[in-house]
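User
Please review the sequence:
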Amino acid sequence: MSDLKLKGSIKIINDTQQVTDSFKKRDFVITTEGDYPQDVKFEATQDRVSILDGLSIGDTVDVSFNIRGNEYKEKYYVNLQAWKLDTVDVGNEQASSEVIKPSAVTEPGVQDDLPF
């Protein structure tokens, strides 16, 4: 799945975690807008951890992301992997964008199926 987007304000930005020698990730949470706001956790991996640089708690963003699912020891996991953040100027709804193109491999041994 691609081209999924969700808008909200940044609630949490965690530090970058070096998971293995060759894999790093950074988690963040946004609170969605609307009648029933939800706190949604995303992760940015590898070279995309920098898309959070310069952002602050409370900033409104559009998150472009992919859904990733996997099975490990008969348990199933779902991650929302952010690959682009657009900051939204709430006053006039204009966005500035920082895009980090995904690399061919997003996790050790997991191929990324994005077309770029």
Notes: The first strand starts at residue 4 and ends at 13. The chain has one domain: 4-104. The domain at 4-104 is CATH 2.40.50.140 (OB fold (Dihydrolipoamide Acetyltransferase, E2P)). Residues 94-106 have pLDDT under 50 and may be disordered.
